[in-house]
Design brief:
By secondary structure, the protein is α/β, with parallel strands linked by helices. It folds into two domains: about 1-200, P-loop containing nucleotide triphosphate hydrolases (Rossmann fold); about 210-390, P-loop containing nucleotide triphosphate hydrolases (Rossmann fold), CATH 3.40.50. It has helices spanning about 1-5, 10-20, 25-35, 50-65, 80-90, 110-115, 125-135, 150-155, 160-170, 185-195, 225-235, 245-260, 275-285, 295-300, 320-325, 345-355, and strands at about 40-45, 70-75, 100-105, 120-125, 145-150, 175-180, 200, 210-220, 240-245, 265, 290-295, 305-310, 335-340, 360.
Length: about 400
């Protein structure tokens, strides 16, 4: 733990880090923590899985005093990321006994109102934060540190104006920390208007490209699902993520995978928060092994053990490809990123190759049977499994 101690982290936080079995700081932690502890505003270029939560949590937890009001606010683009960040804060603040409260939509507001009365650190989504500010159920006058986590995704999701409104409610002499996988012109503009001489750090993508096998298959559009089923049934895999571009396609793919005896679950913004939590619990514990998701729903999720990432739909934004494949090949583990390309995907796929300068190997399409495609219907995700039973497990070891 000497390596963490040298960064300036004090004993109560160090003790929690030891218990979580963190051995050495990640690159973003080494670069950002000393700057954050020194009180600087920081712009950090880092992606999911890079260790960024501990990087910005370190200064907040060391400087916060229990019972002194809301001293830190962390804004995140999604409910899942808000809950994930809040849980990490709870782990790292174990010996400081701070009250960490997560606020986001899709859940009852009254329990949040009650919890906010004793909160020391608040993690929330922009929309629900504005709700609380309008109701005057949260006071930001004592905020010493404001964190914008996954800032690029918040802007992509249309939260730019909401974020700016929330920033104006925070004290002007606060510390502001901005973490983003990409630094867009909007983020640069925000930093100029809302930060004090920010220092910028960045790290290499967390994915170990040497351990990541990137391939693609080219098929007709009406054969994409059949090929996906074939690959899932024949690839040796652990946890799998399948990315689609729309909620409708996510539902359709998940339903058809289940019809082929593959234990897939869908997650997207159209599900209730309770359902999303249940699906993620099933997936992260390995009870369901294939997660079919949209980019928005998957943003910020940091789950260990993902061996395969499938691009069923090619992402419309070229940099989103990097975010997707970053879910696998982590920390020395091997992984596969497989894209299924049809004629309609070709333009976006060409942009990915050109703009990200990545090498993706074309693979010969194997022989496979065509599956009968079932159309999605409403409320198909009301249950994790049919008749209350777990579906057949997809684990070809």
């Amino acid at each position: 733990m000497e390596s963490f101690k040298k960064l300036g982290i004090t004993k109560p936080i160090l003790k929690s880090i030891i218990e979580q079995r963190f051995e050495n700081p990640t690159e973003i932690q080494e670069k950002a923590i000393p700057l954050i502890l020194a009180g600087n505003d920081v712009i950090a270029g880092s992606s999911t899985g890079s260790g960024k939560t501990l990087a910005f949590a370190s200064g907040i937890l060391q400087n916060s005093i229990k019972g002194n009001g809301v001293q830190a606010l962390i804004l995140t683009p999604t409910r899942e990321l808000a809950e994930q960040v809040a849980n990490s804060f709870r782990l790292f603040s174990k010996y400081k006994h701070l009250e960490i409260v997560a606020v986001y939509g899709g859940m009852g507001i009254n329990p949040q109102i009650k919890a906010l009365k004793t909160a020391d650190v608040v993690v929330g989504t922009p929309g629900r934060m504005l709700d609380h500010l309008a109701r005057k159920t949260i006071k930001l006058g004592k905020v010493e540190t404001l964190v914008l986590d996954e800032a690029d995704r918040m802007f992509d999701m249309g939260f730019k104006n909401d974020v700016e409104k929330i920033i104006k409610q925070c004290p002007p002499d606060r510390q502001t920390l901005l973490f983003s996988a990409t630094i867009s012109s909007d983020i640069v503009k925000l930093s100029r208007n809302s930060m004090k001489k920010p220092l910028q750090v960045s790290v290499n993508p967390y994915v170990d490209v040497g351990n990541l096998d990137q391939t693609y298959y080219q098929v007709q559009d009406d054969m994409k699902l059949s090929l996906l089923v074939h690959l899932l049934q024949h690839e040796k895999s652990d946890l799998v993520m399948v990315f689609c571009n729309t909620k409708r396609n996510t539902d359709k793919v998940a339903k058809n995978l289940r019809a082929s005896n593959i234990d897939a679950q869908a997650i997207h913004g159209g599900l209730t928060q309770g359902k999303r939590i249940t699906v993620m619990k099933q997936f992260s514990t390995g009870k369901s092994c294939v997660l079919v998701c949209t980019d928005v729903a998957a943003r910020g999720l940091d789950i260990e053990g993902i061996s395969h990432v499938y691009n069923y739909d090619v992402p419309r934004e070229s940099n989103q490809y990097i975010h997707r494949i970053g879910r696998t090949a982590r920390a020395g583990a091997k992984g596969k990123a497989i894209s299924i390309i049809s004629r309609s995907d070709q333009g976006d796929f060409t942009s990915i190759l050109r703009e990200n300068n990545v090498e993706i190997k074309k693979v010969k399409v194997p022989s496979f049977e065509k599956v009968v495609v079932r159309k999605p219907h409403r409320n198909m995700n009301n249950a994790i499994s049919r008749n209350g039973q777990q579906p057949n497990r997809h684990r070809n070891r």
